[in-house]
Write a structure and sequence with these properties.
about 450 residues, alpha+beta, Spore Coat Polysaccharide Biosynthesis Protein SpsA, Chain A, Jelly Rolls, 3 domains, five-stranded antiparallel beta sheet
Length: about 450
């Protein structure tokens, strides 16, 4: 540890000297020195230390799981970037944050505006910068290819052609910078909100995806939520630059995965990201684009007591009870839902329940809700073949429009419970999706 701290201190001093003198040759030599030192200590570093090492030198890549790229331009009427950054971090657990690096590319032509925005980000998210979760970058317009006299391929005005062409170059610079930062790269816009635990959901989907892929969409809108392999980023950057003045970015992204033999886009449902902006980055345009597939349960997501889930409802495909059982990241999907069917949650240790929310159905399958049923609280846990249940149950309340919400359990049952049970009271033609179970436990 002492050797490592000494190395950090020495390299920091050398790096600052090189940057101040702008000596490119010294920087290249220093880079080689960095690599030698890096490989000596890499195996002993934690993820956080690797991030700090990357932020310290900016010559060596931190290889985490996911880098998230946002290209942001200031809007005259309303600015959503700070809310987007907050959503990314607040919807990620401490363990998930260890695997994330967010890169914000400030693409304003005005350096004063870039500096002002960078200061706002630093003031609002200094702890995430210190932890290595947030990088802010920018580039001079002098580095861009020509944005004047471009061909009008779709009868657009010159200003519109210039805007979309610059946007292509913005994304090309951003994805090229993010190459080698992580195993995967996620493209977002600067006016979105995220679903809770989006990283774990992405990890699970990729882990279970057996077939090769180039692009996976975690949102149905434009270039929001598009996932790429790290090794494809330099190719994507060149592709965007090659056709920067030909067509809009979302069209180029579709052609990119097609050029790599992925005929159709692979779309994860429900969407993990939602567009919130109303003012376009083109300033004069107001747009209201919403992803109908996005699922978000507002507010807190409850506690995660140790539980097991069981049901006698026939399961569709791989949408088993464990997928939604807290802290599940998926949904339960059952078919042939009949009167008397049930879905039971059994606690490893008894709890006193404070609040409960259960949501059924989804944005895509709005009819797959629980039409008639209620929730029961159970005591005296018993084993039953390969499952478990409770011997005594007491009704707590009914479902309404596919939802169950109750936050005054002190008035219903103040004693410890061992089970929660969803009881179906009417046979229904539609299947049943349970998409979210939020449980709050009374403390003390």
């Amino acid at each position: 540890n002492k050797r490592r701290e000494c190395g950090y201190s020495i390299f920091k001093s050398i790096k600052l000297a090189c940057i101040r003198t702008r000596n490119i040759l010294d920087i290249l030599i220093l880079n080689i020195f960095h690599i030698r030192f890096f490989f000596k200590v890499l195996s002993d570093l934690s993820l956080l230390e690797k991030k700090k090492l990357y932020n310290l030198f900016l010559f060596l890549p931190f290889v985490g799981y996911l880098s998230i790229g946002i290209s942001s331009i200031h809007r005259k009427n309303k600015y959503y970037l700070m809310r987007t950054i907050e959503s990314i971090f607040s919807q990620s657990s401490p363990e998930e944050l260890k695997e994330i690096v967010l890169v914000v590319y400030l693409s304003n032509n005005d350096s004063t505006l870039n500096n002002q925005t960078a200061k706002e980000i630093k003031d609002g998210f200094s702890s995430h910068i210190d932890e290595g979760n947030l990088l802010v970058i920018c580039s001079s317009l002098a580095s861009y290819p020509s944005l004047q006299g471009l061909q009008r391929n779709f009868w657009d005005k010159d200003e519109s052609v210039q805007h979309r062409s610059k946007q292509n170059v913005d994304y090309a610079f951003l994805v090229n910078f993010c190459a080698s930062l992580s195993r995967y790269y996620l493209m977002l816009e600067d006016d979105v909100v995220c679903a809770n635990g989006f990283l774990s959901i992405i990890q699970q989907f990729i882990r279970e995806r057996g077939e090769p892929w180039t692009t996976v969409a975690f949102s149905t809108l434009g270039y929001i939520g598009k996932l790429y392999h790290n090794e494809d980023l330099p190719k994507l950057a060149r592709f965007l630059l090659l056709f920067y003045d030909v067509m809009p970015c979302d069209w180029l992204l579709e052609l990119f995965h097609q050029s790599k033999a992925q005929k159709e886009i692979i779309t994860f449902r429900p969407s993990l990201f939602q567009h919130i902006g109303r003012i376009s980055s083109f300033h004069t345009m107001e747009t209201i684009f919403k992803d109908p597939e996005f699922q978000e349960d507002f507010g807190d997501f409850g506690d995660f007591p140790a539980v097991a889930c069981y049901t006698d409802i026939p399961v569709f495909d791989d949408y088993v009870p464990e997928e939604v059982c807290p802290p599940g990241k998926g949904v339960f999907w059952g078919r042939n839902v009949t009167s008397g069917s049930s879905f039971t949650i059994v606690f490893e240790t008894p709890i006193i329940l404070q609040k409960l929310q259960i949501y059924t159905g989804s944005a895509e399958y709005k009819r797959d809700i629980l039409y008639s049923g209620y929730v029961e609280l159970g005591t005296v846990k018993i084993k039953e073949n390969d499952s478990a249940t409770c011997r005594i149950f007491r009704k707590a309340g009914d479902f309404h429009n596919g939802k169950f919400e109750l936050d005054n359990f002190g008035q219903v049952m103040e004693e410890q419970i061992h089970c929660l049970r969803i009881q179906v009271t009417v046979t229904q033609k539609e299947w049943l999706i349970i998409r979210k179970i939020n449980i709050w436990v009374k403390r003390g």
